[in-house]
Structure formats: C-alpha cells, structure tokens
Amino acid sequence: MAESTLLQNFYDEIEANYTIDHTAGFSMDYLYVPFLASFLYVSLVFSGSYFMKNRSPLKLQLPLTLWNAFLASYSILAFSIMAPPLYRDVVSKGFTHSMCNSPCQQSPWLSFWALLFSLSKLVELGDTFFVIVRKSPLNFLHWYHHITVLCYTWYALGSKNEAGHWFAAINLGVHSVMYTYYMLKSMKIYVPSRVALVITLLQLTQFIVGLVIVINGTYLYTNNLPCGVQRAHLTAGFLMYGSYFILFLDFFYNRYVKAKPKKKAN
Questions:
Q1: Where in the chain are the domains?
Q2: 175 has catalytic annotation
C-alpha cells in the first residue's frame, strides 16, 4: 500500500509540474552530449580492444548478470508504461494517427518516460565494456548500432518527433526479451538456441516497422498532409533503419541461413 501511494505521489508530481517542453528543452540544451559520448565511446572501443588483445578475458559473471537484470527490468517496466497508450491509439484512431500524434505530447508522465528512454541509450553503451573485457566478438554492427540509436533518439526527442513514441515502444519490447535472454545466459541457465533466432527476427521486424513509419511519414510530408514529422526526422530515420535492416539481415543470413562448410573426408 505504501509503495502504491509513493508511486501515485510521484505520478501526480510529474503530471502537475512536467511537460513535453521540459523533455525537449533538456534534450536540445544538451544536444552535444550524445555526439561527445559517441566520440569517447568509439575511442574506448578501439583502445579497449587493443588493451585486451594480449590479456586473458575476464569472466565477470555476477556483474554481467546484474547489468542485464537491470536493463531487462527497466525495459519491461518502461514498455508496460509506453506501449498501452500507443495500442489504444492504434485501435481507436488508426495507425497513421498514432504515428502523427504521440501521446507523449499530451501526457507529462509519458514525456518523462520518453526522456528516461533517451537517457537509457547512454547507459546501454556499457554493454560494450563487457564485450571487450570478456573478449567476446565485437563487430561493426555492435558499436554502430549503439551510437546511431543514441544520437537519433536524443535529437528526435529534442525536436518533438511525433513518431518517436512508436520507435521507443517497439525498441523497449524487443529489449525486454533480449536483455532477459542475456541475463539467463549470463546466469548459465540453459536457453534453447532458437530464442536467439527469435530475437534477431524481432529486431528485423522492428526495423521493418520503422521503415514503414518513415515511408508513411514521407508520403504525408510530400503531400502536405498534417503530421508532426520533419524532413530531418524522415531522412535520419530512413538512413538509420535502412542500414540496421541491411546489417542485421546480413548477420541473420551468416549466422542462421548460410550453410556451414562441410568437413573434408580423410
């Protein structure tokens, strides 16, 4: 009961004193943060990989488990908050309305969680630390995905991209499954290999939905139909989701479709 009251008081405080302008204003005031963070991040990716080149990998099972548990818990909670209003909008007013009129614009509570979503992309850069020190495979897709989604999310929030609610909700849904999977793996709990396949398919579906939103937004924009999207949102969204789809499709093909070379007979 006390926890419920505390949460309700926090909700009431946000609703009474917070608006989308707070979120957008914060993002634009600190627009340099994601770009500076990305520069430092990439520098540490290569310097860290070089540092670990001739060193033994670290296990870090407990820290990795706690890290994945934290991100899984956050993703599930944020998804449970962000997704229902979007679902209700799609059912009652249609897909186009939902991507052109984000509930975040009217709800301080959702706007606050949109800001937390943006900030979470900074936190998720920490994934790479574990990849490097454990000497797991680190490819271009990994770090490229991290920096581009951080920069795009931060800018989209600051410029009030109406379709951003869609991007956030879908991403949180996929991450809820993905980080839970990572947590179980780090705990050495058996997870069927097909789960990893399903997660990659979910990621590809996420990018297809993103491209559909961008294409629909481009149609509305070019025909001067009302929708809260800007040319910069559409261009950046197309380049980002298009490149993600190609890179993840290549990853999917090489990992799950491409036949493994047969061993030569003696």
A1: 41-256
A2: no
